[in-house]
Design brief:
It comes from Fictibacillus arsenicus. By secondary structure, the protein is α/β, with parallel strands linked by helices. It has five helices and nine strands; from the N terminus they run βαβββββαβαββαα. The protein has one domain: Class I glutamine amidotransferase (GATase) domain (Rossmann fold).
């Protein structure tokens, strides 16, 4: 079975990736979680959801995965093990999806020097100033450039749609594959 890696860390915004991981369930992809913390340590999301990661970031072999998903939150940009892992995914042309504050990790890995992106970050987020390439930031809801998909936090549905397109779970030309999540219905 093909695998997608989900990077989780304390404060990650679970709502930004909940629809995406729901749609991965039942596909040809298995979801594997990893964290920057020691093995056996629980991760707590922004909504206080507790997650026991499958592996640590140090145990990741990017060759085992088709994609890496990075939710927003307050990522630890100083962890060189994590940024090296992310950079290896980029260098191997693996799909990387980062939403909201997640692109800060892309910046810390040096990837934002090579791609256009969007994020829910501004220059007022001073903790990320050293790693963000503001010249490459687009004021868009979603940006796909090379093997990187980025979105602002409130655009988690179109983020999920684009990642699913890139993974070929939904057809590239399907306009609204997640319409079910966009409009209330009686079903």
């Amino acid at each position: 079975m093909k695998k997608v890696l989900l990077f989780v860390y304390d404060s990650f915004a679970e709502f930004e990736i909940s629809i995406l991981i729901t749609c991965l369930n039942g596909s040809d992809y298995e979801l594997v979680t990893c964290s920057p913390y020691s093995s056996g340590r629980t991760v707590t999301s922004a909504g206080k959801l507790k997650v026991m990661p499958d592996i640590t970031a140090n145990e990741v072999d990017p060759d085992d995965y088709f994609a890496l998903i990075i939710p927003g939150g307050n990522p630890l940009i100083e962890d060189t093990g994590v940024t090296n892992m992310i950079r290896t995914f980029f260098d191997k042309h693996k799909l990387i999806g980062a939403i909201c504050g997640g692109p800060a990790l892309l910046g810390a890995a040096g990837i934002l020097n090579h791609v256009k992106y969007t994020a829910s970050l501004t220059q007022n987020d001073t903790q990320y100033l050293p790693v963000m390439n503001w010249d490459n930031k687009e004021e868009q809801h979603l940006v796909a450039d090379q093997n990187v998909v980025t979105a602002t936090g409130s655009n988690y549905i179109i983020f999920a749609e684009e990642v699913l397109r890139q993974l070929k779970i939904v057809p590239a030309d399907e306009k609204n594959p997640l319409q079910y999540f966009k409009e209330p219905s009686m079903s």
